[in-house]
Amino acid sequence: MPTFMDVHTGFVNATADDLRKAHEADLAIEADEMVHFEKAWLDPVSGKAFCLSTGPDKAAVMRVHEKAGHPTSEVYEIPIEV
Questions:
Q1: Is the pTM here over 0.85, yes or no?
Q2: Exposure pattern of 18-39 as b/e (b: 16+ CB <10 Å)?
Q3: What is the pLDDT of residues 33-58, one digit of tens each?
Q4: Which residues are CB-neighbours of 57 under 8 A, at least 6 positions away?
């Protein structure tokens, strides 16, 4: 399965608990799209959150985030890892 990194905006002053809740919302429905969210990171100053996932394609990752309530169009396939 391909690996993806996505970027969210709008998380200014968010807390670890806010990020955990958003990540858990993804985990609750990820199987519907055959996606798995591995990890999530947050920079509360810039308001950016980042998610690492695997799935069939970019569209599937985007659908999970949309259904979970934190849509993003900024999803990147990352085919090279060292």
A1: yes
A2: ebeebbebbeeebeebebebee
A3: 999 999 999 999 999 999 999 999 99
A4: 2
